[in-house]
């Protein structure tokens, strides 16, 4: 899985460039864990390169969300396409995760 990482101020941006499915989810999980191990618990997932997500991807997001919350941080999403948005709504994940149109909007929400 290709994953780009960057920062917007103190926000860690993780941008996977592949579907979040069982076959390739481990590297995203490792990337999130690396940030948490470094005490970086404010994470923004940029979904601009994610075409779809399966149940394993949803499970990883929920598990990561819970771990980040324990550390006083948050995971937010941006650039989520309509298919992924529909999946988040149907699975009620949208009640846990904040979804924004742009990385800048998401970063502002941390202030």
List the topology elements:
Blueprint: E1 3-8, E2 11-16, H1 26-37, E3 42-46, H2 55-70, E4 74-78, H3 82-90, E5 98-100, H4 103-109
Parallel strand pairs: 2-3, 3-4, 4-5
Antiparallel strand pairs: 1-2
CATH architectural label: 2-Layer Sandwich
Q: How do the strands line up in the largest sheet?
A: 1-2-3-4-5
Q: Unreliable segments (pLDDT under 50, ≥5 consecutive)?
A: none
Calculate Rg over CA atoms. Answer: 12 Å
What proportion of the residues is helical, as a percent range? 25-40%
Order of helices and strands: EEHEHEHEH
Query: What is the CATH superfamily?
Result: STAS domain
Strand fraction equals: 15-25%
Largest sheet: 5 strands, mixed
| Assembly level | single chain
Structure overview:
The chain is an alpha/beta fold. It has a single domain (3-109), classed as STAS domain (Transcription Regulator spoIIAA, 2-Layer Sandwich), CATH 3.30.750.24. The chain is built from four helices and five strands. The chain has helices at 26-37, 55-70, 82-90, 103-109; strands at 3-8, 11-16, 42-46, 74-78, 98-100. It has a five-stranded mixed beta sheet. Helix 1 links the parallel strand 2 (11-16) and strand 3. Helix 1 packs parallel to helix 2 (55-70). The termini are far apart. The model has no long low-confidence stretch (mean pLDDT 94).
């Amino acid at each position: 899985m290709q994953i780009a990482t960057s920062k917007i101020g103190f926000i860690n941006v993780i941008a996977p460039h592949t579907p979040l499915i069982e076959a390739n989810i481990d590297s995203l999980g490792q990337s999130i864990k690396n940030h948490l191990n470094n005490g970086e618990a404010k994470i923004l997932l940029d979904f601009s390169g994610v075409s779809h997500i399966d149940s394993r991807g949803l499970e990883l997001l929920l598990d990561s969300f819970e771990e980040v919350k324990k550390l006083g941080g948050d995971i937010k999403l941006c650039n989520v396409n309509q298919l992924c948005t529909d999946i988040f709504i149907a699975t009620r994940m949208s009640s846990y995760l904040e979804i924004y149109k742009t990385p800048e909007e998401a970063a502002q929400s941390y202030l």
